Input
Amino acid sequence: LVEAKKKGKSGLKGAFEEVGGGNDGQVTREEMVKYLSRAGYPGNASGLFDLVDVDNEGLITKKEFGAMTQENFIKQGPVRAFKFFLSKHFGSVDDAFQSLDDSGDKQLSEKEFVETIEKLGYEGDATIVYRCLDEDTN
Output
């Protein structure tokens, strides 16, 4: 937002345009990573893109960009990414749960959950996903 403001643009619309959404109404991964790198963003720019790209289409729309400001957006991101992973690997949440529940006790401990999904090749932070989903402690 600071860079957008320097160029006379303001608000989310200005930031969206500055990141790369000005010409075609969408931001590509390349545009966002390049912009954030130039701006000195210290985090994982590609990972941030994945978090904001809610529909996993490889483009950030104005709606997705604006959604970043909503309450619980960060918590929803890991859950959304995990849901996408489950749908690709299992087809349904029930099938996934049965597969993840090695002990067959219809419960998943954090250790059991993390170890199992990491073995399956999940690239996100399994511990964060578990803690987002564990309603007993939230």
In short: The radius of gyration is 18 Å. DSSP finds nine helices and two strands in the chain.
